[in-house]
Design a protein that fits this description.
Length: 247
């Protein structure tokens, strides 16, 4: 029994080490996104930003335009006129105009659907990823990313953020020059604070897309807690009434 317990602990520890190494290989130091799903304005801005800068390549095949309208407090006309670039109907899923074949021809692989990216990677990962692009002329797409090395996509938000150049450190044991920071060689249309908010809004929308029911669950949770408080009070009154004669 002791031997089995030791084996399980060893396997668990090995799993932790593998997870840690995998995490380190993708950058490791994640920035806090500060996403607030109760901020409807942020979700609305994030939806508009995603549709304008991301939906040309990436789809949200588990999200319908109608759901965006209902959940984010937008009218159907607002969604259809401002967020629907695929020509679909209000009940259709959010699709991309780019076919898999077009994606392979342009980037070497088809851009993935992003419906569940927040559930797979986490909001902090998305937030950090969108802030970690830098110019790399050795790459076919002209860009690289410190969180996702040798990424196959260019920076979709470079006009807003500006062009980041890497600040390289000393050579490591592998003979590589690590990126220790960035400098802006070409300013974008937004300053650093504005761009942080832009990325936060997109991240919030993608977190919503990964689990739309989370918005409703938070509202239901408040009512559930209020019910439990009321039920506890009623139970206390009932207990006091039952034990009155005993005392």
């Amino acid at each position: 029994m002791t031997k089995n317990l030791f084996s399980r602990v060893a396997v668990f520890a090995a799993g932790l080490l593998l997870s840690a190494s995998a995490f380190a290989s993708e950058g490791g130091n994640l920035q806090q996104s500060g996403v607030d799903l109760n901020d409807k304005a942020s979700l609305q801005r994030g939806a508009a930003l995603f549709m304008n800068y991301c939906s040309g390549c990436h789809s949200l095949k588990y999200v319908r335009y109608a759901s965006i309208s209902q959940d984010l407090g937008l009218t159907e006309d607002e969604v259809m006129n401002n967020l629907n670039f695929s020509g679909g109907k209000i009940g259709d899923h959010v699709t991309s105009a780019m076919t898999p074949a077009m994606g392979v021809a342009a980037f070497g692989k088809a851009p993935p659907d992003l419906s569940l990216i927040a559930r797979v990677r986490g909001s902090d990962w998305i937030y950090t990823y969108l802030k970690s692009f830098y110019l790399d002329e050795s790459r076919p797409v002209g860009w690289n990313n410190t969180l996702f090395a040798n990424v196959s996509m260019p920076n979709p938000l470079w006009e807003l953020q500006g062009v980041q150049q890497p600040v390289l450190g000393k050579k490591n044991e592998a003979g590589e020059l690590p990126v220790e920071g960035f400098t802006i060689s070409q300013p974008g249309t937004q300053n650093a604070k504005q761009y942080d908010q832009t990325v936060r809004d997109i991240t919030a929308f993608l977190e919503y897309a990964g689990e739309p029911v989370a918005l409703k669950r938070q509202n239901v949770g408040v009512w559930a807690i209020l019910f439990l408080v009321f039920f506890t009070f009623m139970a206390w009154l009932l207990k006091r009434e039952f034990w009155r004669d005993v005392h």
